Amino acid sequence: MRKIIVYIATSADGYIARPDGNVDWLNSPRFAGDYGMRAFYRSIDTILWGRKTYDVALEFQKQGIKGAAFDSRVKNYIFSHHPASSAAPTVVFVTDARDAREGYLDDGWGGAHRILSR
């Protein structure tokens, strides 16, 4: 059976983004270490994205923010009822979650909108 791992950064009040969608709090001063993220990332082969997060990542890429590109070493699936007219080359848009169950997913992780809609 495939395993889906939920790995989300949340603020103390339980939110991932500000009401306007901003996630600038994620870039606040960091403590030593990476909180296990490197080891975790090496253990997955798939990332499930929601459309809002995909759009934020594209904006970060336009701004030249380091690490914002979609990693071609993992499968990137964007779940949306409204796929982009042209997608980044390393992503696949999924409009029906049943399609994902048909064999897309190995061990992966995904965001809150995907989890909450299950």
Quick recap:
The chain has 4 helices and 5 strands; from the N terminus they run E-H-E-H-E-E-H-E-H. The protein is an alpha/beta fold.
Verbal overview:
This protein is of the alpha/beta class and 118 residues long. Helices cover 24% and strands 17% of the residues. It has four helices and five strands. Strands 1-5-2-3-4 form a five-stranded parallel β-sheet. The radius of gyration is 15 Å and the shape is globular.
List the helices and strands and how they pair.
Blueprint: E1 4-6, H1 37-42, E2 46-50, H2 51-62, E3 75-79, E4 91-94, H3 97-101, E5 108-110, H4 112-116
Parallel strand pairs: 1-5, 2-3, 2-5, 3-4
Helix share bin: 10-25%
The CA-CA distance between the termini, in Å, is 17 Å
Number of strands: 5
Radius of gyration: 15 Å
Primary descriptors:
118 residues; five-stranded parallel sheet; 4 helices; disordered C terminus
